[in-house]
Amino acid sequence: MRRALKPAFALLALILSLLGVPEARAADAASTLRVHGLLDLGWHSDDEAFAANQFIAGDSPFSPYRLRLYFDGQASAQVQVFVQALLTEAGGTRVDGAYALITPWEDKDLHLMAGKIAWPIGTWAPRTYSDKNPLIGVPLMYQYHTSLRWDDIPRTTDELVAAAGAGAAGPDYGGGIGSPGMPIVDDFGWDFGVVAQGSVRPLEFAFGATQSAPSWASPGEDANRGLTALGRLGYAPVPELRVGVSGARGAYLPRFFGPYLPVGKSEQDYPQELLMADLEVQRGALELRAEAAHNDWKTPYVGTLGVQSGYVEARWTFNAGWWLASRAETERFSKVTGTSGTYPWDENVDRFENGAGYRVSRNVLAKAVWQHTVQHEADKTEPYDMYGAQLSVKF
């Protein structure tokens, strides 16, 4: 068991005993296992724009194929288990999620979730799947690689600014290219943690702890000997309206940086601090969603690096099974001062994605999109245009 989460699991066991949750018995529920899947077949027109849509493992929603397999088990009347596996050409096979869901009372919306879980912040996680996403791409705040790495430390602002715009390729601070830079929230890097979630209408909540910060997960052995506290509080007065705020704070640097940090400092002194807000409005055929994020990474040698991001997404559904969708989004980086002046520490970026979709049948969706991305370099802008198509098949 992971050392950093032992206290959390001990607390979970104590809560369950106080709630009177019985041990799994054959009489509670027969053990069941359900296997189902989601196959995405994709096409894209431009390799450079495709690189700006890649996840850390190298795959993308625009990849030629991505296969998700879901294994859902009912261990007892109160305990369910869920495993998600993803197979892609670039990323190989990996387990995205593996967790237990405990429901103490059948008549109350309260659940305890433990294992490798999705980040319980924001509202994108339920819509990350191709059969829920009205477009193909993922919002910048959940995918776009900044030029700040988890596995290397920039020693000067000049090193950092020189690597601006290289987040997807792997920024080089002078020691060589390494891992891609961190997104604000790594939607495809779930972490090991414990979360309580549910609702007491009109309020909804999700609070817990994970082994690392949302920008870089640590689902295996705990990499920095600390916990990230995170969660969301929402308000849904009517089914058509939903608003919420989310937050997270925790260390993102691994502990192997210990000898290279300033004297008397540890990785716990350099957390990621994230504040988010979300809005959903549904009115007839119109669905409108928006999220905003203010994120700070504390660093050992170049101070606090801030980034603000947000998107607005709309979908209009027609009776014949067609829909039109659009998403406008942006990321803006705080400024740092180097020997040649004051600049944003990374290249500001805007993205627009527009498309149409058609529900071929209950389990088959077809989409086509045009995506326009603009990176703002110091003295010019660099646009990327990409056309993409996707067939989503649920089975």
Structure description:
The protein has helices at residues 6-19, 47-51, 140-143, 157-162, and strands at 32-44, 65-74, 79-88, 92-102, 110-117, 191-200, 203-210, 228-238, 241-251, 271-283, 286-298, 304-317, 322-333, 335-338, 341-344, 348-361, 364-376, 381-394. The chain has 4 helices and 18 strands. The model is unreliable at 1-5, 7-12 and 21-30 (pLDDT under 50). The protein is globular and about 60 Å long. 7% of the residues lie in helices and 49% in strands. It has a 16-stranded antiparallel β-barrel with strand order 1-2-3-4-5-6-7-8-9-10-11-12-13-16-17-18. Strands 14-15 form a two-stranded antiparallel ribbon. A hairpin with a 3-residue loop joins strand 3 and strand 4. The chain has 395 residues and is mainly β. The protein has one domain (45-59, 120-394): Beta Barrel (Porin), CATH 2.40.160. The longest helix is centred in the first third of the chain and has 14 residues, at 6-19.
